[in-house]
Each structure stands twice: as structure tokens, then as C-alpha cells.
Design goal:
Elements: H1 2-29, E1 31-33, E2 40-42, H2 63-78, H3 117-136, H4 144-160, H5 164-176, H6 184-202, H7 212-215
Antiparallel strand pairs: 1-2
Protein name: Sulfhydryl oxidase
Signal peptide: 1-24
Catalytic activity: 2 R'C(R)SH + O2 = R'C(R)S-S(R)CR' + H2O2
Length: 247
């Protein structure tokens, strides 16, 4: 009695499971309708390697096609992936990267050679304006520390200036003309002489140092140097042998 019931139970399970399995496979695999004939085809028949499609009749999909489609899906899910291209870190030969020309380094300077002539000229004009205004605002009678700070500034400036070739030229200029930092007057006149030395090297006209006050007046009030800007005062100069008198 129990064995007969067990066989009946297993038969019922098969009868329920197989149609459900077929139905779910049909929903997953889907149907494709021919727009020309209006007839339905099993979608799996359009997969690569399948036989020509069997037409669906009016009673649903052909079970053999549905089972074959499910088998194809099952095999695809567990088939090892072998068609992906190997990963490579080397750039493709078709990809073109823009080459950026590096500016040559300059010995003794932190920045490289500045090849853009327009940028170099604009930088130079702005820098000279800053330096002249700075020396004209320097204390007339600076302390020892203030004088040393100004001296240190010029030597550090000659290394940090963003135009490497200009910085190298300024370093050479400092060797020939050590900074005069014992007074505002001498600092302003020393810088004007240095500026004219650069002008001479570049073939530019000499600047009249008597026009420093009017040319670089920052509008800061009476603190700007308004003294006789004719020459470096010997009594306030250091290394006077390296200073060219300005007349």
C-alpha cells in the first residue's frame, strides 16, 4: 500500500514539475514573431549554431525546442570564458599622446630655461617694478638685521626666480655687483645700476636713475625715498670697488 502511494506521489510530482519547468523555460527563452508571416518562432532557434527554426503552431511552443533552448542557456552559463582579450598595460599603437617639450634645466637655478619670449618679457617688467618699489620703500637707516635680510633676499631671489636663464644671469651679476643694503638710498641706486647692466646686455636703452622716484612712485606717502639719486654714497657702501658710479 505504501509503495503504491509513493509511486503515485512521485508521478504527481513529475506531472506538476515538468510543465512548470517547460513554462518557465519558455518565459525565459521567449518567442520571436516574424513580421512578414506573423508566425511565432522559438528565440533559441536564432542562436548561433542552431538548426533552422521550427514554426510554432497554435498550441504553444514545441517542447523539444524549449528544452533545447534551456540546455543552450545552461551550457552558456557554465561555459568557460575564453574569448575575452588578454589585459595589457601597454598603450595601443593607435592612441597618440601629445608630447610636451621639456625646457632645459639651468645650473644654479631652481627653474628651467624659459623659452616663451613674451612670458619672459612680461615677467621681467613686473619683477623690476616690484624690486624698485621695494628698495625705494626700504628703511633709510635700516638695522643690521634689516640690511642682512635684504641681502639674503637678493641671493635667494637669484635662485628662485622662475626664469632659469634669467636667474643664472642675475647670479653672475651679484658676483660682480654685491648688493648694497646699508641704506635705502644705496639699495635703490645699486638696483638701478644692476637694472642698467641688464639693459646693456639686452641691448636696451639706459634708464635715468634720477627718475626712480617718479617712475616707481607707489603712492604710499612721504616714506618713499626722495633724496638725491645721483650716486651711491661711499660712506654707506660695502664692496665699493664693485659698484659703478651712476651720474
Amino acid at each position: 500500500m505504501s509503495s503504491r502511494f509513493l509511486r503515485f506521489f512521485l508521478l504527481a510530482v513529475v506531472l506538476v514539475t515538468v510543465p512548470s519547468f517547460v513554462y518557465l523555460s519558455q518565459r525565459r527563452n521567449g518567442l520571436v514573431r516574424d513580421p512578414t508571416t506573423g508566425e511565432w518562432y522559438a528565440a533559441d532557434s536564432y542562436q548561433h549554431g542552431n538548426l533552422p527554426a521550427q514554426k510554432e503552431q497554435g498550441h504553444g511552443p514545441i517542447v523539444s525546442n524549449v528544452m533545447k533552448g534551456f540546455s543552450n542557456l545552461w551550457n552558456m552559463a557554465y561555459e568557460p570564458v575564453t574569448k575575452f582579450p588578454a589585459h595589457t598595460t601597454e598603450p595601443s599603437s593607435d592612441v597618440k599622446t601629445a608630447s610636451v617639450a621639456e625646457e632645459p634645466p639651468v645650473e644654479g637655478a631652481y627653474a628651467a630655461h624659459m623659452t616663451n619670449a613674451t612670458a619672459k618679457a612680461e615677467l621681467g617688467r613686473a619683477t623690476w617694478h616690484f624690486l624698485h618699489t621695494m628698495t625705494l620703500r626700504f628703511p633709510e637707516q635700516p638695522t643690521k638685521q634689516q640690511s642682512e635680510d635684504l641681502r639674503t633676499f637678493f641671493y635667494m631671489f637669484s635662485k628662485l626666480y622662475p626664469c632659469g636663464d634669467c636667474a643664472a644671469h642675475f647670479q653672475k651679476l651679484l658676483e660682480e655687483r654685491p648688493p648694497q643694503v646699508l641704506s635705502r638710498h644705496n639699495a635703490a641706486m645699486w638696483l638701478c645700476g644692476a637694472h642698467n647692466a641688464v639693459n646693456e646686455r639686452l641691448g636696451k636703452p639706459e634708464f635715468d636713475c634720477r627718475l626712480l622716484n617718479s617712475t616707481y612712485d607707489c603712492g604710499c606717502g612721504p616714506e618713499t625715498a626722495a633724496t638725491d639719486l645721483q650716486a651711491v654714497r661711499p660712506e654707506e657702501a660695502t664692496g665699493i670697488a664693485n659698484i659703478m658710479p651712476i651720474s
